[in-house]
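Think of the structure tokens as a kind of shorthand, similar to the way a musician reads notation: each symbol stands for something richer, in this case the local conformation of the backbone. In the example below we present two proteins back to back. Begin with the first one, reading the sequence and then the tokens, and try to describe in your own words what changes along the chain.
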Amino acid sequence: SNWFETPQGRYILSWEKSKVDQLVTDQFGFNAFQFGMPQCAFLDQNRIPLRQIAGEGEGVDLICNFQEIPLATNSVDLVVMPHILEFHKEPHQILREVERILIADGQLIITGFNPISLWGLRKKMHLKKDVFPFNGNYISVLRLRDWLKLLSFEVDRGHFGCYIPPFKDEQWIRRWHFMEAAGDRWWSVAGGVYLIRAI
């Protein structure tokens, strides 16, 4: 959680929050869950009456292990998972559990770091492998789409963003902001992070 207070973290979080807000605003139902990252309320623009944060640490409404989610089958309308899969040992099991708890037309929104990006390149070259966020197992969008299709999800094409190199200094992030528009136009699948929505 400390990393998301750094210039790098704020840059990533700002893009993800704006994209998630656009997707969840008109999503209706009875139960919505955000898995992890309690420091950022990804569901605050949603109209579902029961919005909860689940996770393994402090600041959550439901403390749980994502590999065995203590929720009834077919009971949740919306799940938002920011950066869960690439930092857990059993991403397949987590997706199976999410598929189990979602209703028939339930929606799943996933954000993750893109291995085919400047952030992914930095991860491969990084000497300190234990430093967040370069200590995760980045999952490509194509692989994630395959996993979701095996679980009978219909998957959007996804959104990519954060094309600026992983600079630590806010001044450099501002200087390179022109890459956002250029990235969307010229190398759209090479954003540092992605967002996928599945039904």
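Once you have a description of the first chain, move to the second and do the same.
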Amino acid sequence: RPPAFGSGTPGGGYQMPADKRIMSGPYSELGVYRIKATVTTYKLESDSDFHIVAKDPDTGETMIVESVDSSCASGSSSANTFTMVRQQFAEIFSTPPGSQFINVNQPVTIIGVGFYDPPHKQTGAAPNARELHPVLCISAGAECDSYQ
């Protein structure tokens, strides 16, 4: 099971280095994870990310997953992936995200990069402050099954 939905405690006594990516240890930001979850709510954030709350169907624990705006990756090989994720999102959810949370109950498969976001009272945050950010694939069907 990926260390996504809430194993551990926030910070867990681990001292975060200032302004650096975590390359090893309990908060490594190098792992790519696939989860089966139910999206319960989503909204557009001021930085143009989609803030999506995913709930574990077995435990009820939640975590945040974020779909980033492809313009944030302009010129990189990731821009096409981020554009594809936004298209996948639009195919699953008929209402585009706005500034207020939209409540839904949609089972999905999500693939994303593990990310530690220090707790700051975000809606849906995992107890261990882990997120999947950025999302690399989101599907209500089998689209993520062949993701490489």
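Compare your description with these statements about the second chain. The helical segments are 79-92.
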